[in-house]
Amino acid sequence: MPRTPRIGSVAVVVSSLALTTVTAFGGSASAATVVTVAKDGSGNFTTVQAAVDAAPSNGSGTYEVDIKPGTYRGTVSVASAKTHVTLKGLGSAADQVVIVENHAASSYGTQGSATVAVSASDFRAENLTFANDYDEAKNGSSQAVALDLNADRAVLNNVRVLGNQDTLLLWTASTSTVGRSYIRTSYVEGDVDFIFGRGTAVFDRSEIHSLSRGSSTNNGYVTAAATTNTNPYGFLFYRSTLTGNASAKSVYLGRPWHPSGDVNAVGQVLFRECTLGAHVRDDPWTDMSGFSWKTARFSEYTNTGAGAAVNANRPQLSASQAPSYTPARYLAGSDGWNPVY
User: Fold this and answer.
1) Catalytic residue chosen out of the listed positions 122, 148, 152, 166
2) How close are the terminal C-alpha atoms of the chain, in Å?
3) In angstroms, rounded to a whole number, what is the distance separating the alpha carbons of residues 108 and 282?
4) Whether residue 301 has pLDDT greater than 80
5) 53 a catalytic residue
6) Helix (H, G, I), strand (E, B) or coil at 87
């Protein structure tokens, strides 16, 4: 996707830990510590994890980690106490800063396989790539998470999230906890259930790319939502584009995930005003682990493109319902959070 310029930002790089002023996502100025990561030793740290570890615990000001171009292999964990951390790639495009590892759930468990795991609130990422390059062709199919957002009020802007099965996990600490993510002008790719979890997320003007698994009929599922039944908002794909190298009519938009058979996980997914590629099936929702997709909350609204259609297998949001299912409504929560721009 073309890079969207950062709006109203002032990038300040310092040679040592220092307090300076930057403009955060959305435009308002706030005190922030800015540090630099560079593999060649020209920054404050040589690894992203070391920079994150140096962030203050439960800080209220932004702690910005500016990352110079390069491939940074290894996992990164943003612990729950490391609030208000921003990871920002300094390259001219998101593919110039890559954080990557090749862990698979078969060895590490689902969440343990994540290249980047975020448990802290108010996390931000901009202009970089999170990837899990576990080799399915060589080692066999397995969950292999690139990014685990297990937090609230996360924002991704011009970020690529790359993997195969279970690429992006949107999770919460408990079924009664809300975890909101705003994913703007970004790119997510994968094949099986590659956007999944019980978190609340808005994909705004992003590209969702389905990879081929070599089948003519079933090349996977974009989503596997496990939204708690008391939460009206799961995943919203808004004015986004669904692309893929899979064969025509071979990819499902989603299926309902009930973790450990949880009957209170009633997935909510809406594709709204999106452009759907020819790889999307005419019957785009399907059952999972004995649970019918018809008991989930799956719908579409005014989609276009070769993969768009209206039929008995494609529930549509009504015009009267539409005002209640906007990016702002999904993200507002009880605190009125509104990162949309």
Assistant:
1) 166
2) 18
3) 36
4) yes
5) no
6) strand
